[in-house]
Specification:
The structure holds 2 protein chains of 2 kinds. By secondary structure, chain A is an all-alpha fold. Helix content of chain A is about 75%, strand content about 0%. Chain A has helices spanning about 1-25, 30-40, 45-60, 60-70, 75-90, 95-115, 120-130, 135-140, 160-180, 185-210, 210-230, 235-245, 250-260; strands spanning about 150, 150-155. In chain A, a hairpin with a 2-residue loop joins strand 1 and strand 2. By secondary structure, chain B is mainly beta. In chain B, about 5% of the residues lie in helices and about 45% in strands. The longest helix of chain B has 18 residues, at about 5-25. The radius of gyration of chain B is 21 Å and the shape is globular. Residues about 20-30 of chain B have low confidence and may be disordered. Chains A and B meet through helix 3, helix 6, helix 7, helix 8 and helix 10 of A and helix 1 of B.
Chain lengths: ~260, ~350
C-alpha cells in the first residue's frame, strides 16, 4: 500500500515540484504557491461539482426546514420526504463528502511532497533520495534546494508567527463562506465551534511544522476562497461584513445573490 | 442537511491531523550515530544528544556526557568522534563542537559554530578541522579550541575534510571541492561538479577522491585540481571514498560498492549490497566491512569483492563500522551497537547506550 502511494501520488508530486522549482528561478516559496495552484486547478472539476452540489443543498434549506417542522414527530417519514426532495432537485445528500474524500489523498500528497522536498536533516535527505527520479539528472542537480523565501526558512517554523495567523484567517474566511445558516440552534452552535476550531488547529499545526507547509495552507485556502466566491459569493461571511458595517443581514442577501447569478 | 456538515468536517479534520502528524515523516529514525574505537574503549554519540564511552570488550559503561544526573542532552550527535591523546572531539546539531576528557567525559572546551555540525572532525598536526551547516570550514587549535581560521563555502558542509601535503580538501553542498592551505586557510583551487557533495573526500597518491550527488566519483590532481578521471554510478554518492594502496572503494545509493583502480578509475569489481550505501566501508587486514540502509553488514574480500559473511541488524546501518582487536563494531539507527567477531560474524554483545 505504501509502495503504491509512493509510486502514484508522492513521487510524481515531489518530482513535479522540483521541476517547477527549476523553472521558477529556484525559488521554493513561489514554487510551493504555483505548485499548489496547479494541483488545485487539476482538481477544479471535482471542486466545482462539490460546490455546486453544496449550493443546491443550500437553496433547498427552506423546504427542508418545512419538512422538519411538518414531520418533527415522525423521523421515518421525514427521512423519506427529504430523500424525495433531494431526488426532485437532483442532489446527492453525500455529494459534499465524496469529492472531499477524493481530494483528500491529493492534499496529503501535496503536503508530503513539500515536506520531503525540504529535508532539514541527513535522514530526511536520505528519504528524498528514495523518491527522486534519477532518469532526470536535472532534478538531482537541484539539491540542495534554496529554502529561503521572504523572511522564512521554509523547512523551519515561522519565527514571527505570520503564517500561522494567515492560516487561521484564510481558513476561517473559507469556512465562513462555505457555511450556511441554520435555524436549528444546536447545529448552529456546533457549526460555529467547528468554524473556529478547524482554523485554530491548522494554525497550531503551522506553528509547529515547517513554514513551507504553512505557505501551502495559505495558498490552498486563498485558492479555495477565490473559487468559493465565484461559485456562491461571500456566503455567511457577508453576515460578518454586515455586522462589522452595521448594515444587518441585507449584505448577506447581496452576497448570496451574487452567488445565485453565477 | 447543512452544506457545512460539522461531523464530516470533524472526520476529515481528524484524518488530516493523523496523516499530517504521522504519515508524512521519514520512515527512518531521526538520527544516526557514529562510533570510534581506540584503546579498548568505544566512543559514540547518540540521537538523544549524549556521548557515551563503553568498554569495547564488555560494553560496560565508562562514562557519559552530559552525565546522567543532567536531564538535558546536547543536540543529536551524528558525527564520528575524533581522538587526540586523551581528548575526544565531537560535533553536535546544537552547533557546537565539544572537546571532552576521554578518560572521564568532563568537558574541556566547546566551540560554537553558527550552524549545525553533522561533519566528522579531522585532526592533523594539532589542528582540528570541522565543517558546519553554516557553510564554513573551521580550523581550531585542538588543545585550546581557539579558532585559527575559517573558510566560507557557498553551502553546508556535512562531510569530513581530507588532510594531506599541507592542504585541506573539503567538499560542500555548493557543488564544489576546495583545496585550502592547512596553515592559513587560503584557497589554492576549487573544482565545480554537477551535483552537491554531502560526504567527505579522501587523499591518495597525488589525487583527491570525492563522490557527488551527480553520481560521479571524481579524482582530482591534488596540486592543481584538474580532473584526472571520473566514474559514473547510478545514484547519489554520499559515502566518502576509501583509498587502500592502489584501489578506491566507494559505496553508492544505487546499492553497489565499487572497487576502482585509484590511478585510472577503471572498475575492478562491484558488489550488490541490496541496500543504499550511505557510509564508507571500514577496511582492516584485506577485508571490507560495509553497512547498508537495509540493515545488513556485508563483509567482503577487498581484492575480489567476494562476500565472506553477513550480519543483519534490526535497523539501517548508515555509518561506517569500526574494527579493532578482531572485533567489528556496528552502529544501527536507533543507537543500537553490535559487537561481532570480525572473522566469523558471531555476535559478542549488543547494547543501546541511550536506553540503559
Amino acid at each position: 500500500m505504501s509502495q503504491l502511494w509512493n509510486t502514484f501520488i508522492l513521487e510524481p508530486m515531489i518530482n513535479f515540484l522540483l521541476f517547477v522549482y527549476s523553472l521558477l528561478g529556484r525559488n521554493f516559496g513561489i514554487s510551493i504557491i504555483v505548485f499548489t495552484v496547479l494541483v488545485r486547478l487539476l482538481t477544479l472539476p471535482i471542486n466545482l461539482r462539490q460546490m455546486r452540489s453544496a449550493k443546491l443543498t443550500q437553496e433547498m434549506q427552506p423546504k427542508l426546514e418545512e419538512l422538519r417542522k411538518k414531520y418533527k414527530n415522525d423521523r421515518e417519514k421525514l427521512a423519506e420526504e427529504q430523500m424525495k426532495l433531494y431526488q426532485e432537485h437532483g442532489v446527492n445528500p453525500l455529494g459534499c463528502l465524496v469529492p472531499t474524500l477524493i481530494q483528500f489523498p491529493i492534499w496529503i500528497g501535496l503536503y508530503q511532497s513539500i515536506i520531503n522536498a525540504l529535508p532539514d536533516t541527513p535522514l530526511q535527505l536520505l528519504n528524498l533520495a528514495r523518491h527522486i527520479y534519477l532518469q532526470f539528472p536535472l532534478l538531482s542537480s537541484l539539491i540542495p534546494l534554496n529554502s529561503r523565501f521572504l523572511w522564512l526558512n521554509l523547512n523551519r517554523s515561522d519565527p514571527y508567527y505570520v503564517l500561522p495567523l494567515l492560516t487561521v484567517a484564510t481558513m476561517w474566511v473559507q469556512q465562513k463562506m462555505m457555511a450556511s445558516p441554520s435555524t436549528d440552534p444546536q447545529q448552529q452552535a456546533m457549526s460555529q465551534t467547528m468554524e473556529l476550531m478547524m482554523p485554530m488547529m491548522f494554525g497550531f499545526i503551522t506553528l509547529q511544522l515547517a513554514s513551507g507547509l504553512g505557505l501551502y495552507f495559505v495558498a490552498t485556502n486563498v485558492f479555495g476562497i477565490v473559487l468559493q466566491y465565484f461559485v456562491s459569493g461571500w456566503g455567511s461571511l457577508a453576515t460578518v461584513f454586515g455586522r462589522l458595517g452595521g448594515r444587518g443581514s441585507g449584505d448577506q442577501a447581496k452576497g448570496e445573490k451574487r452567488g445565485r447569478k453565477r | 442537511m447543512k452544506v457545512f456538515n460539522p461531523r464530516i468536517a470533524l472526520l476529515v479534520f481528524c484524518a488530516a491531523a493523523a496523516l499530517l502528524s504521522g504519515c508524512a515523516g521519514s520512515p527512518v529514525a531521526p538520527a544516526w550515530s557514529s562510533i570510534l574505537v581506540a584503546d579498548n574503549v568505544l566512543y559514540t554519540g547518540s540521537q538523544v544528544g549524549r556521548v557515551y564511552a563503553l568498554n569495547a570488550e564488555s560494553a560496560v559503561s565508562i562514562w557519559q556526557y552530559p552525565p546522567a544526573s543532567d536531564n538535558a542532552g546536547l543536540g543529536a550527535l551524528y558525527a564520528k568522534p575524533a581522538l587526540l591523546d586523551d581528548t575526544l572531539y565531537i560535533g553536535s546539531v546544537d552547533n557546537k563542537l565539544y572537546a571532552l576528557d576521554a578518560n572521564t567525559g568532563s568537558q574541556r572546551w566547546a566551540f560554537a559554530a553558527a550552524g549545525r555540525i553533522y561533519a566528522d572532525a579531522v585532526i592533523s598536526d594539532g589542528v582540528l578541522f570541522v565543517g558546519s551547516s553554516d557553510h564554513r570550514l573551521y580550523a581550531l587549535d585542538a588543545t585550546t579550541g581557539l579558532k585559527k581560521w575559517e573558510f566560507a563555502t557557498g553551502n553546508s558542509i556535512w562531510g569530513q575534510p581530507a588532510v594531506g601535503g599541507g592542504k585541506v580538501y573539503i567538499a560542500s553542498f555548493d557543488h564544489r571541492i576546495y583545496s585550502l592551505d592547512a596553515e592559513t586557510g587560503q584557497k589554492v583551487w576549487e573544482f565545480e561538479a554537477g551535483g552537491a557533495f554531502a560526504g567527505g573526500c579522501a587523499v591518495g597518491d597525488d589525487l583527491v577522491y570525492c563522490g557527488s550527488f551527480d553520481g560521479k566519483v571524481y579524482a582530482l590532481d591534488a596540486g592543481d585540481g584538474q580532473k584526472r578521471w571520473e566514474f559514473q554510478t547510478d545514484h547519489w554518492l554520499w559515502a566518502s571514498p576509501v583509498v587502500v594502496e592502489d584501489a578506491v572503494y566507494v559505496g553508492s545509493l544505487d546499492k553497489k560498492l565499487y572497487a576502482l583502480d585509484a590511478a585510472t578509475g577503471v572498475k575492478r569489481w562491484d558488489f550488490d549490497a541490496e541496500g543504499m550505501i550511505r557510509a564508507a566501508p571500514a577496511f582492516a587486514d584485506g577485508v571490507l566491512y560495509l553497512g547498508t540502509e537495509a540493515g545488513t553488514l556485508h563483509v567482503l574480500d577487498a581484492a575480489s569483492g567476494a562476500r565472506k559473511w553477513f550480519f543483519t541488524a534490526g535497523q539501517s546501518i548508515l555509518t561506517s563500522p569500526a574494527v579493532a582487536e578482531g572485533t567489528v563494531y556496528v552502529s544501527a539507527v536507533g543507537d543500537m551497537i553490535y559487537a561481532l567477531d570480525a572473522e566469523s560474524g558471531v555476535q559478542r554483545w549488543t547494547v543501546t547506550p541511550s536506553k540503559r
